[in-house]
Amino acid sequence: MKIIVTSIFVQDQDRALEFYSEKLGFIKKEDIPVGEFRWITLVSPDVQDGTELLLEPNAHPAAKEYQKKIFAEGIPATMFGVEDIRKEYDRLREKGVQFTMEPTKMGELTIAVFDDTCGNLIQIVQK
């Protein structure tokens, strides 16, 4: 068994697609109309046949509440791995990404957290 798709709730699929592709550099893999929403997935440019990230609309009240509460508590919705966190931090800041935590060493990991402008905090980590 393997993970093929993981999802993240977003407030606006178009804005999320723009942020995740233009700011973060992910590549759109699927964009299929499904009723009033779309099945939009992205992949890492380095592993285009790897796990897909689904930009899931937070239309359901439970999804909105979950997203709102973890954001308010400062809990990242997901985590992305990077090779060089300082380089990635600088690259994203140059693109206007707002960080809530700059690169911080925690044991053998270094982490940073940013706001995806779609209702989520996202953590990047360097092992």
From TrEMBL:
PROSITE patterns: VOC. Residues 1-127 form the VOC domain. InterPro entries: Glyas_Bleomycin-R_OHBP_Dase, Glyas_Fos-R_dOase_dom, VOC_core. Coiled coil: none annotated. Signal peptide: none annotated. It holds the Pfam family Glyoxalase. PANTHER family: GLYOXALASE/BLEOMYCIN RESISTANCE PROTEIN/DIOXYGENASE, GLYOXALASE_BLEOMYCIN RESISTANCE PROTEIN_DIOXYGENASE. This is VOC family protein.
